[in-house]
Design goal:
This protein has a single domain, classed as Rossmann fold (3-Layer(aba) Sandwich). Strands 2-1-3-5-7 form a five-stranded parallel sheet, sandwiched between helices. Strands 4-6 form a two-stranded parallel sheet. It has 302 residues and is of the alpha/beta class. The chain is globular. 39% of the residues are buried.
Length: 302
């Protein structure tokens, strides 16, 4: 009998501690300011009312300067890009966003190899799930996480602190010492790590498409269409050329949903190594040039 009481007491204390820790982590998590990671996601899901929202991974985060687009287009803009997250994450984030409000225009920065099977690894899916778990109170986010990994949903419902399992240390670190965004979600990459006079790298690796990634992009386009949101899909500049890629599939899907598609990967204006931080990311100088060029092109369309 005493053993049973001790077990019940232990479970009760575990329950109380988990709920208390979960509330504490939620408090700090939701009050992060700026930075490359979750603060931008939280802002878009809970506070944003901007006319234009930019989605994508690190190439979105580092390539698009909202203030330049705002000054040119006279519309508010926010960069919701998140490093290391791709179309599975973007699809869930958009679905969660439109449950609260509908931006006038969505820009999706998509990689030229976005549908490659390497982008659908279990590790990548786990990263997406862990990034979305703090937001599963949003029904659309809940549904996306459940599709990707239903076991994680069960654990997060039982243990409230589990939602922040991968973020515990960084939550406190970023709360105590926040990273300030230069311009509404945009994060600059100064200088370059490329050697001088580098010949343009050419990637000729084999390529095979993953249907789940392509379906996620189709779903992203559908969400925009159903909510009457204009969609601009962009493959932004890259110094590295990927020969076998997803661009034809992306172009066809955009055509099916009356979405505008722009491809800057072979634009000669951006084939200068001094504009790049590394072979896949523009530096701050390149981002200014790209954002100005994009703003000019968008004025002709919108």
């Amino acid at each position: 009998m005493k053993v049973i009481k001790n077990v019940v007491l232990f479970l009760f204390l575990l329950f109380v501690c988990d709920r208390a820790l979960g509330l504490l982590l939620q408090y700090f998590y939701n009050r992060q300011v700026g930075g490359l990671e979750s603060a931008n996601t939280t802002y878009v899901l809970t506070k944003a009312k901007d006319d234009i929202v930019i989605f994508g991974s690190s190439r979105a985060t580092h390539h698009y300067i909202p203030s330049i687009l705002e000054d040119s287009l006279h519309k508010t803009c926010y960069n919701a890009g998140r490093v290391g997250r791709f179309i599975l994450f973007d699809d869930a984030l958009l679905a969660g966003t439109v449950k609260r409000y509908k931006p006038h225009l969505v820009i999706l920065d998509i990689s030229d190899n976005e549908f490659d099977t390497k982008m659908a690894s279990q590790k990548q899916k786990d990263i997406v799930v862990s990034s979305l778990l703090p937001y599963i109170n949003n029904n659309a986010i809940y549904a996306s996480v459940k599709t990707l990994n239903s076991k994680q949903i069960i654990l997060a419902n039982i243990f409230h602190s589990y939602k922040y399992n991968s973020e515990v240390l960084s939550v406190f670190k970023r709360f105590l010492k926040p990273v300030k965004s230069v311009s509404r979600g945009y994060e600059p990459l100064p200088g370059t790590v490329l050697p001088p006079d580098l010949t343009r790298p050419i990637d000729t690796e084999s390529y095979s498409e993953d249907s789940s990634l392509k379906n996620a992009f189709v779903d992203f386009c559908k969400t925009c269409e159903e909510n009457k949101i204009k969609l601009l899909v962009i493959v932004s500049p890259s110094y590295e050329k990927i020969v076998n890629n997803s661009k034809e599939a992306i172009r066809n899907i955009c055509s099916n949903y009356n979405s505008t598609f722009m491809d800057f990967t072979d634009d000669t204006e951006f084939l200068k190594e001094q504009l790049y931080y590394d072979t896949r990311h523009l530096n701050s100088t390149g981002a200014i040039l790209f954002s100005e060029r994009l703003a000019s092109k968008m004025k002709d369309i919108y």
